[in-house]
Design a protein that fits this description.
- The chain is mainly α and 393 residues long.
- The chain has 15 helices and 10 strands.
- A hairpin with a 2-residue loop joins β6 and β7.
- This is Cytochrome P450.
Length: 393
């Protein structure tokens, strides 16, 4: 059996085989084109800061896997930029995600979480992704950007289509991209006519006042903040709840000592983080990774999931252990492309879990057979059916 078999359906098993066999493997991407996947913690961590591994597609060689293809108006984002453009664009938005700014958002995040839990009632069954884990981050990030309520459900549908596209229905992904282009075009036009106290209005003002931000960069930045701000957090929340319910001893320990929750979020991120892979990279020259020489221009995939379960860095890595020191995990990246919204994702996950556990002493999976998205890059649940009650019966 090819060690890369199962990367989509059983990623942790497949990455374990790859990591145990060799540090670097040549595999086929979802489009059938080749890529190199790096699996061991030290190699992945070093590669994330290696300036010879560029995220800029201009360094890509034809015939290699290049991942999601977007039009220029959505593709000119931080994930595809190197310095100095990356530095220039990132500094325009980083202040919205500082620890101080996120601390100010904690109260409204908790209010949103409580409102969503109120809607569930005192007991029953629910798909926690649809009723809680998804609407919480989409509400938070849309409020931050200033996106009206009426557009939020559509954006969730478009995002889900892009994260786990159906190979048999390529037209769905194209339609989602077209819809996003129209959506962001209209949204920017509306904000220019009626600016408000929100991040998107601030970015438009910066662009229109002559800061070096192109129209494509503006639209792409809005897209990335909304896409990543929703996508990473819904997966982190859903994956964390599923992990707790599958490890009742860890759930009991967390209930007994809620002060451990911030550290527990780091272990959830390590154990079942939202991204299986970092954004693909292209060597600007021949590079040696884990003893393997990768030619310039070929695609390099850095497996965050494999690195976070490398026993050389985390003992017994396949065991969820909320008392573990999970610092140094790579779930949210490393280096200049470290996740811009990491402080917000951490805060939202911590608050979402605290509110859920406080509200419902009884929580249990309603279906043990959890269904995961079929994605090479993202790790998230399609649904999370559970039963809940405000009192143990």
């Amino acid at each position: 059996m090819d060690p890369a078999d199962g990367l989509i359906d059983h990623p942790h098993d497949a990455y374990r085989r790859l990591r145990d066999t060799a540090p670097v493997h040549r595999i086929a991407g979802t489009d059938g084109n080749p890529a190199w996947v790096v699996t061991r913690y030290q190699d992945v961590r070093e590669a994330l800061t290696d300036p010879r591994l560029s995220v800029d597609k201009r360094h890509a060689k034809e015939g290699n896997y290049q991942g999601l293809s977007l039009p220029p108006a959505l593709d000119a984002n931080l994930l595809n930029m190197e310095a100095p453009d990356h530095t220039r664009v990132r500094r325009l938005v980083v202040r919205a995600f500082t620890a101080r700014r996120v601390e100010q958002l904690r109260a409204p995040i908790r209010e949103t979480a409580d409102r969503l839990l109120d809607a569930l009632g005192p007991h029953g069954t629910t798909d926690l992704i649809a009723s809680y884990a998804a609407p919480l981050p989409i509400t938070v990030i849309c409020d931050l950007l200033g996106i009206p309520d009426r557009h939020r459900r559509d954006f969730r549908v478009w995002t889900d289509t892009l994260v786990a596209p159906d190979p048999a229905r390529p037209q769905d992904a194209k339609a989602a991209v077209a819809a996003m282009l129209g959506f962001f075009g209209e949204l920017l036009a509306d904000k220019r006519q009626e600016p408000a106290d929100d991040l998107l209005s601030d970015l438009i003002a910066v662009r229109d006042e002559g800061d070096r931000l192109s129209e494509d960069e503006l639209m792409s930045l809005a897209f990335l903040i909304l896409f990543a701000g929703y996508e990473n957090t819904v997966q982190l929340i859903g994956n964390a709840v599923a992990a707790l319910l599958q490890h009742p001893e860890q759930l009991a320990a967390l209930r007994a000592d809620p002060a451990r929750l911030p550290a527990a979020v780091e272990e959830f991120a390590r154990f079942e983080g939202p991204a299986l892979l970092a954004i693909r990279r292209f060597p600007t020259e021949d590079v040696t990774l884990g003893g393997v020489t990768v030619p310039a221009g070929e695609t390099v995939l850095l497996s965050l999931a494999a690195a976070n379960r490398d026993p050389a860095r985390f003992p017994e890595p396949d065991r969820l252990d909320l008392s573990r020191d999970a610092s140094g995990h790579l779930a949210l990246g490393h280096g200049i492309h470290y996740c811009l919204g990491a402080p917000l994702a951490r805060a939202e996950t911590e608050i979402a879990l605290a509110a859920l556990l406080e509200r419902f002493p009884y929580l249990a999976l309603a279906d043990e057979d959890l269904r995961w998205r079929r994605s090479l890059r993202a790790r998230g649940l399609l649904s999370l059916p559970l039963s809940y009650a405000e009192k143990n019966s």
